[in-house]
Design brief:
FN3_sf, membrane, FN3_dom, 36% strand, Ig-like_fold, 137 residues, alpha+beta, rod-shaped, transmembrane, 2 helices
């Protein structure tokens, strides 16, 4: 079926999920009703921060995701998405909520924390004189 220049696309079927500490990945499903969509307009907001805008252009039929970068770790965002068939023919917006991943603990830090906890337990379990003799020879 041919493209009608007056056609306005339906609201998109998209998912947004954390892909890293500072980014979200938006993905969508292409079906017959959305074959003429050429980009998704995306606005990302959180609290009182200024909105970030992204244009996720569809360059091939295989491209079904877009990374939204430059975000803050472990932060909840409102993501507003519109599917566009042309510059002025966009779908009504839909809003999704997603949270970026939290800060990950470095393996060395986990080991250090475990060592400190074990040392504290040992200090409580061992008589002070024995610990003093072991540590301050």
């Amino acid at each position: 079926k041919g493209w009608n220049p007056g056609w306005t696309p339906p609201p998109p079927t998209v998912q947004v999920k954390a892909s890293s500490r500072k980014s979200l990945t938006m993905s969508w499903v292409n079906d017959e009703d959305t074959q003429h969509i050429w980009k998704y307009k995306v606005k990302v907001t959180s609290g009182k921060r200024q909105a970030k805008k992204y244009n996720c252009e569809i360059t091939t039929a295989e491209l079904r995701n877009c990374e939204l970068t430059g975000l803050s770790p472990y932060t909840q965002y409102n993501v507003t998405v519109r599917a566009c068939a042309s510059k002025n023919k966009c779908s009504p917006p839909i809003m999704l909520v997603a949270t970026t991943a939290g800060p990950a603990l470095h393996p060395f830090l986990i080991t250090l924390i475990a060592f400190v906890v074990l040392l504290a337990v040992a200090c409580c379990a061992v008589h002070f004189d024995v610990l003093h003799a072991l540590c301050w020879q």
